Amino acid sequence: MSDDKIAKLPKWAQDMFRDLQREREVAIRALNEWTDNQTPSPVFIDELECLGEEKTERGSPPSRKRRYVQTHRIQIEWAGVVLDVHLRDEGIALQWGTLDRSMAEVSMVPRSYQQVTLMTKDKMR
Predict the structure, then answer these.
(1) Tens digits of per-residue pLDDT, 33-78?
(2) Which of 2, 7, 29, 89 is most buried by its number of CB atoms within 10 A?
(3) Are residues 58 and 16 part of one domain?
(4) pLDDT level of residue 110 (50, 70, 90 thresholds)
(5) Do 29 and 57 fall within a single domain?
């Protein structure tokens, strides 16, 4: 919002708008400091956050934020499937099953070059 438009607002709205701008700037700075000060590790999460940090002619593109996880093993649960990812000296080990740990089948379905989807049998077409 331009300064001219803000100046036309009532005083309480101008103050509230400026407070929100300051809070947003502090939150972005805190997020950036938190992500910048982490210890890098082999396990991380990359997220695209729409923070409006950069301005271009086309708008504000999302900012990539990397969050490191200090571990050698991570577990992901989704759509009835549990995937365990273990970092080993010889490489990355994958192990999967169902959420209820029953003997239900989990299928590895090829999608494209070096890409698969793990899904329970009932999710297959």
Answers:
(1) 887 778 888 988 888 888 777 777 777 788 888 888 888 999 999 9
(2) 29
(3) yes
(4) very high
(5) yes
